[in-house]
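WARN retry 2 of 3 for item q-0093 after timeout on previous attempt; input resubmitted unchanged.
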Amino acid sequence: MPDIFTLEAKIKEIIDELKGLCQTNGLANQASEEVVITSVFLYKFLNDKFMENLKSFANELGISYEDVLQNNNDEMEAFYCAYPQDVAFTYDETIEYLINRVSHPEFYKLFDDALEKISNDTKNEAFSIDTADGGRKPLFTRITENVEVSKRNNFAKNIFGIISQERFDFGEAFKNNFDFYSTIFEYLIKDYNVASGVYAEYFTPQAISSIIAKILVNMSPVEDKLYDIYDPSAGSGSLVLHLANELGEGSFGDKAQVYTQDISGKSSRFLRINMMLNGLTNSLDNIIEGDTLDTPAHYNISHEPSSGVKQFDYITSNPPFKMDFSSTRDSIEQKWVEADERDGIRRFFAGIPKIPNKKKESMGIYLCFIQHILWSLKDNGKAAIVVPTGFITAQSSIEKTIRRTIVEKKWLKGVISMPSNIFANTGTNVSVLFIDKSNKEGKIMLLDASKLGKKIKDGKNQKTVLSAEEVEKIEDTFINQKVVDDFSVSVSYEEIEAKNYSLSAGQYFEVKIEYVELSEEEFQKRMLGYHTRLEQLFAEGKTLEEKIKEQLGGLRYE
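OK item q-0093 returned
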C-alpha cells in the first residue's frame, strides 16, 4: 500500500491530468472547467468508494462482487441498505462497466446518461442541493456538453483514460482523515478559488479555520451528544468542516449536524464535494443554496419569518465584507424589522446599511450577517465571525450598536486581530470575533497577532502564512487565558465599556517605561558623548551653510 504522501501525489496527478485535458479542449479559464474537473473527480471518488464497499460486503457473504453487481439481485438491495450514506450505483453507471464501452461510436452519451441516471436515482436524492425556493440541483450534469459536439467522444474517452487507471488507490485513501482530505480538496479547487465579491466563495485559510475550530470547541466541555453547527455564508465549507472535525465523534457517530446556506451555486457545489470527501453525507440535506439574509432556509417549525427559524449550538462564518445588496435591502428590512425577539433583540436590531448614492458595492453586508448570527445562536451558543479589523473600533452607529449590545448582554468571549494579507486575495485586515452567550461573569481575551506570520508570494499576490508554532501560540494563549506583554490582555466588560466599546487589544496594553540605573561616572560619560556628537553636527552644519552661501554668491543673471 502507498504511504499517505505517495497517495496524495497520485491523486493530485489525476487532478492535474484532468485540468490538462480541459485546457486542450478549450475550457481553460472558463466557468465550465471547474464544473468538469470537480464533477469528474467526485464521480471517480464515489465510484471507487462504492466499489471498495461492495467488495468488502461481498467478501463477508462469501460471493464475488461481480455477481452481486451485475445481477442486481437481493444482495444488491441489502448492500444499499448496509451503506445508505454512500451514493448508489448500478452496474452500467460504474467506471468498470463504461471503460469496456469506450469503442462505442457515441460513448460520450453513455457517460452523460450514466451521470444523469445517478443524479435521478431516488436512492441518491439526499445528494442533490436544495435551493431556498424549494428546488433541487442534481448531483451531476451532462459533462461532455461543455465541449463542442465534434470533440465530445474523444473528450469522454480521454476522461476515462485518466480515471480508470489503477494508480488511484482510493481503497487506502478511504482510511485517511480530515487533514488528508482538506489538503486534497484545497488542491482540487485552488484554480477556481477566486473571491468574486459574492459571499464567501473563497477558501478560508486552513490555519484560520483550525484556530477558530479549536477555540470554539474549547470554550466549554464537549458532551457526548449531537451539536447543531451552522455557517450562514459557508463558501466551500472550510470553517464549518474544521469545526465538525474538531467536535469529533461520540458513541453514536459524528457529534456535528451541519447546516449551511450560501447564495453561490459554485460554493454550494464545492461544499457538497467537501462534505462527501469527509463522510458527512448525513448533513447533505442541510446544504442550501440561497440568500441567507432575505430568505433564511433552516426552520424548526414553519417557513414563516418568525421564531421558527432554527437556532444553533455553534456558528462559524467568514461573511462577505462589502457588496451591493441594494436589490434585496428593502425586502430584508420589511420582512424582518418586526420579527419576534430573541434574547431581547430583533434579527437586525442595529439596523441595515443604507443604499449609498455612489459605490453601492461598498455596502457593509457583513454587519447584517453578524446580527443574523447573534439572533441565530442558542442561549448558551458559541460563535466565531471573521470581520474587518476596522469593525472592532468603528464609531459609526451600526458597528458601535452591535459591539455595545454584545458587551451589555455579556455575550463576548474575545477578539483576535490577525496579520495583514492572511487572505491572499484581499488586503483587508481581519479580526475574529468570538461570541459566547454563557460568558456572563467571565473575562474577555483580546489578542493582537498582527505581527506574526511570514510573507510569501502566492501567484501575483502576497499573503502571510502562520507557522505551526504561531498557530499553537494563538490557540494556547486564548484558550488558557494567558496574558502576554504586547500580545494578549484579559479585560472585563466594564473596562470595555470605559474604552467606548473598543475591542482592540492595543488600547488595553499597559504602557511600560524602561528605567536603567546609571552611576554618576556612566551618566557623565554619556553626557560627554552627546555633547561631542552635537559639536560634530553643528560643525558639519556650519560648513554646509558656508558652501550654500558660496554657491548662491556665484549665481549671475544672464
